[in-house]
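FIELD: query
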Amino acid sequence: MFWALGCYLGTRVFTYVLLDPLLSHWRTSTPGFARDLVVVALYLGTAVFLLHRSVGVDLGTLMSTGAIAAAVLGLSMQETLGNLFAGISMSLAPAFRVDDWVEVTGNLRGGSGQETFIGRVETMTWRTVQIITENGDTTIFPNRILAQAVVTNLYAPSGLHRRTLKLVVAPHEAMAATLAALEQALGGIPHHPDHKPEVRSHSFDVGGVVLELRFWALGWRHGRAANFQAVRLTQTVLTRLEVPLLGPHGATPTRTSPVLLRDGAVEDILEHLGLPRELAPELKAGVFLRRAEPGEGVIREGDPGESLFMVMTGTLQAVKVVERLDPYTGLFWDVVGELGPGDWFGEGSLLTGAPRRATVVAATACELVEVPKAAFERALRGTPHLVEGLVELMESRTARMSEAPRTANRRDLMREEIKRWFRL
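FIELD: result
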């Protein structure tokens, strides 16, 4: 009884002091499964030791008899043991974990050809792995099948998953502007600042230019949603720019209605900037009118900018990306501000050319007035004394974001920065 108690306590101490922390460090897919296997092996070893210690059982005879029994058992349970040891291997050195999305390629159904299967890992047991497809169907794979297949983890190592779309558009002179507009619109898809959506001219096909849209999402689940949003935004932007898509049956016709500038919009912008309303006719000639559909990016954090926006209709949100793990891993927009009719954004980039501080995404269908730097340059060159109004605006804007005290030296620096930016 003394030896039995000592073996039991030793196994428990080894389990909780060494085994559990080790499995936690490895982040195994099924820590309970791997732990139970090791614990059972420890108890079997202590049982053999106790038989030899207390009863005097010959270990050599026991080992030889056990080997014969194991050989017979192994021949009759080849498939079960194959699943067991494959499960042990995947548990102790996991290529994927529960809730990961995986792509499995191999001879999955015993036929002659290769198959590809994509789904989310639901559970992992000693015998099988259950994977749920995007349609909600559950497929059960024996562990030995997965051990022999090529498994691509669509979440590991970084969790970022790049999606690619290709489309063919009619050649036109303003191709660079089209690419920039598509990149700006795709900025409404949640993305890391270091992995912004890209649009490139890829090749030529059916008499047109093949555009490749590349954007990132966190994992397969969000990649699908981002794919749908990218298709919708691309169609919207191309229709707005009157750029037809090309296909086997020719060009797709485009129809769009112009955006109308409401009365007093430019005067409101001048009043907001502290400039006289008499500059409205000159400024009105240089503004742009824009539409934005739900989910479309208007400006992106970190991008260079040199324009101011005023909201005529609709609602927009200033957002920053945040990664959440609950209820599942994904990228989401964290709303830091709401913008509605009569609101302005982008003053910092207009006044100094500073990079955009946040991403602005349309929450509903919107109509916007964009006032570029060039329009203000023409107005300020005739009345350079109006720079003081811009200094006041910039100082008030800086004060809202910083607790730094107002000083004459800071005003001088702002004045010089604005004059240098507008080349006054």
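FIELD: remark
The CA atoms of residues 163 and 224 lie 8 Å apart.
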